[in-house]
Write a sequence for this structure.
């Protein structure tokens, strides 16, 4: 796929996709942690305060990571849209 993309566009997109992969990986890890915590909370009668704090913390972290991913996706869309507009203008100028 990257072979079809102009080098200048690749230079813009590569770090964005890398960041997106990093945040996606972290979000997946947090999701697994949340699931483990859910299982622990179901076992216990009265959940320990530490588990509740950790649960709140994980929810905040996943919210942050989700927000970062959405921002990166918008940035990637913006770069692609800009490239599409530039390409379209070039084609009109040539044709």
């Amino acid at each position: 796929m990257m072979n079809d993309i102009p080098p200048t566009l690749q230079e813009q997109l590569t770090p964005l996709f890398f960041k997106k992969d990093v945040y996606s990986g972290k979000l997946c890890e947090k999701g697994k942690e949340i699931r483990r915590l859910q299982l622990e909370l179901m076992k216990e009668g009265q959940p320990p305060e530490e588990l509740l704090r950790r649960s709140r913390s994980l929810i905040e972290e996943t919210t942050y990571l989700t927000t970062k991913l959405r921002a990166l996706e918008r940035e990637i869309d913006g770069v692609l849209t800009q490239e599409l507009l530039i390409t379209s203008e070039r084609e009109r100028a040539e044709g």
Summary: The longest helix spans residues 49-94. The two ends are 27 Å apart (CA to CA). The chain is about 85% helix and 0% strand. Helices lie at 7-43, 49-94.
